[in-house]
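In response to reviewer comment 3 from the previous cycle, which asked for concrete evidence that the modeling workflow produces usable outputs, we include below a single protein chain processed end to end. The sequence was submitted unchanged, and the resulting structure tokens are shown without manual editing.
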Amino acid sequence: MAYNFSERKKFGTWRRLWLYLAQAEKSLGLPITDEQIREMEANLDNIDFKMAAEEEKKLRHDVMAHVHTFAHCCPKAAAIIHLGATSCYVGDNTDLIVLRDGFNLLLPKLARVISRLADFAEKYADMPALGFTHYQPAQLTTVGKRCCLWIQDLCMDLQNLERARDDLRFRGVKGTTGTQASFLQLFEGDHSKVEELDRLVTAKAGFKRAYMVTGQTYSRKVDIGVLAVLASLGASIHKICTDIRLLANLKEIEEPFEKDQIGSSAMPYKRNPMRSERCCSLARHLMTLVMDPLQTAAVQWFERTLDDSANRRVCLAEAFLTADIILSTLQNISEGLVVYPKVIERRIRQELPFMATENIIMAMVKAGGNRQDCHEKIRVLSQQAAAVVKQEGGDNDFIARVRADSYFSPIHKQLESLLDPSSFTGRAPQQVAKFLKEEVRPALIPYQSKMGGKIELAL
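The workflow returned the following structure tokens.
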């Protein structure tokens, strides 16, 4: 990703765009020779960055600095480099190429994260775990089902990134204010050749379509769409890593922790979830970046104003670079999640007795008991047990109280089955299996060839 937003990628792409333009203009009859084309082809990556910097310092214009630098190593082609074009021909079209390529780098990474989490969800599809609503104990779920909530959000992000990439069009050859006037003059009023020039250059750059109308630039609303889906990805990852941080506090699940890793300089026992914390920190930054293109699109005057440029050079690159490292970190986390079943079981035992009260009432009624009498007995015993937990700091002894009460003797032998955690997880295991089979695995098929490799972090 760093290369994708590098100076070499940027200016190398400029030169390729100048080549595409010259090739297309030649094919449509402009007096450009094969020798000039070959000279440009031979110097696409022969960039004298020192000379370009010196030219830019003198000219105060980055595009013309690189036109001169390219012309210096292509003296025969110098006269036709940038013919009919404006700065945004190379600037905006390169940005669109870089955005497209950025998505192509992020998508396999996101697919790998989803794949790793899908394997985790499948492995723990049946393991009961205490659910939480309002961060208060709720009905049981399973470890795998909770993970599927994370996966579903990431699958939405996968679709959003694919759609944003596929919706990108090329700016093409549109001239200084988008009217293509310079190219119409070059081709002596032949509108069909101007349209064909636009089509040819668009195809050479690997795009299926160009924007039919532009000002000097492509609409800056395009950037909003790009950063919006990345911000949405950031929100998903923040939620996932927050859940992992909370689970680490509960000692139910932890991110990878190296043998010699130190959690705190003062508290040697600590195992801080620093990978997840880092993801949350960077995800917040990623989510804020969408405000830049929103503001930029809102303040563009007429066909274009240049106060977009410096802002875009920062926010577009930062968004993709941030998303890239967050996904790498999340892949590392997902490849090494540690589950502590005994802790999960203990927490269930603490909360399940109260959740089982309705089952106990139903069993007593089936055994001939009165529903209202049973309800009152359970109310009294549960409040006594709650007092032990809250006031004395003891364990939940509700079931022991039920066992000790002769009123419940008709169902004493059923208590174990009534308290089986798997009977409280509903269809969670089946939901996991169906979700992974019908939605997740099919979405990953386009990325199967890029699923290999583990992420090792040097943090």
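The chain has a mean pLDDT of 94. We consider this sufficient to address the reviewer's concern, and the full set will be provided in the supplementary archive.
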